[in-house]
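Hey, I'm writing a tutorial for new members on how sequence and structure tokens pair up, and I'd like a real worked example in the thread rather than a made-up one. If someone can provide the structure for the chain below, I'll link this post from the tutorial.
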Amino acid sequence: MDTLFLFQIICNKVEVRQFGTRMIELKKVKTVYICTSCETQHPKWQGFCNGCGERGTLKEEITGGESKQTKPRAAKSNVPVKRLLDTSSSKSDRLVTSISEFNRVMGGGIVKDSLSIITAVPGAGKSTLLLQVSQDLASKRFRVLYASGEESESQIKNRAERILPSIHENIWIHSDTSMNNVLGVIETIDPDIIIIDSIQTFVLDEFPSRPGSPTQTMECANAMLKVAKSAERPRAVMMVGQMTKDNELAGLRALEHLVDTVLILDGEEGEELKQLSASKNRYGSTGEMGFFSMEENGLRAIDNPSEFFITQRNEIVSGSALTVIKEGTRPIIVEVESLVSPTFTPYPSRIGECMRKDQISTLTAILEQRAGLQMLTQNVVIKTTGGIRLKETSSNLAVLMSIVSSYKGKGIPNDVVFIADIGLTGELKKVPTLEPRIREIERMGYKKVFIARNALRNPKAFNDIEVISCNTLSEVIDKVFNSMPF
């Protein structure tokens, strides 16, 4: 075999390689602009993407320099191949924090050799949460490096003094946009967990693209992946990712495929309630949700959401009804409030921050046709205590009963709960995982629950709560407002 000589000549942005006696001209090194939403390439920058029509999504990237005549060369791997049956399984060690809601979403804690990313709208509390996690792990004798490309060291110190009772000595901070410098700091202080805030602000000197470009973001993330997955020294890495106007993680979809866990902190700036969920988790369930309350000294975990999402009152008020929703594996008692008022316009309003307007219109139409209430002349406003969103159909009966309560001006007893869906025929429909929901309200001391008929195999299995089965919405209204004593 002839000896392979390889050299590169860059002339007029054309790369030339010599393989033996053959000269191969490679593609020109050029700049293209790639859409971060659909990855459509454009020869020059413009304000919108020709592929998907999105505006402001074109990012610069350098391409070219690869031969069209080369083909992959097979190489002998140093890692022996094994049968899956013969491969030993292992459970990764976790860094367990004292923040219970964070541990729940992560699947029990942070895996030591994992790469995670958290995203949210600006001001939601990403940096605050990670700083609290850093303080908690530092108090457990783990060394933490907090690297920020967005804030200066003094800004990080000011936030830490505001939300932390005391700053632990095991927390190290580094404010720089150079990923090369961050890698050098990692070798110097040898941290156990690394916080990168945010990944879109860092650059590697080896690539000429600007910060935030697809090339820089992916290469910086790959550099942190190698740090996290090192066989000699595994580390936990958590990155902050910026969010687009469509409430999605900024950058190529490949970034989500690269990491082990994608966390989403839901909650606008100024809102007290914050919800943490995982859209991807290789080490746990993606159905779990953690609840936090934004306070002056940072995020406080809501360990018992059933107490947070209801109003503690002694008197009976109109327009309020209780239901049970499921967030992950956890049932949560939620209070639904309604306000019904006469309209002075041709079209009545249907307003609700906790559910879609179309869903409210459908439920009010069922209420008018199947229960005989005149809703075409009434405005309806729906909300939930704490601002939690009603994504499950199990809350539909409670929504309708709260509307009826406000319409009639009669309150529902505070120890009554409604768990059922409503069909267009006005019939009650059963919901999944009904028994754990009833167990939760029984634990909280409620006395009556309305469900669909035949939804439980044995309604008498509960000792401390009365299970009332009904066929239709009209039957529930009659039993609540005409049969129950007040």
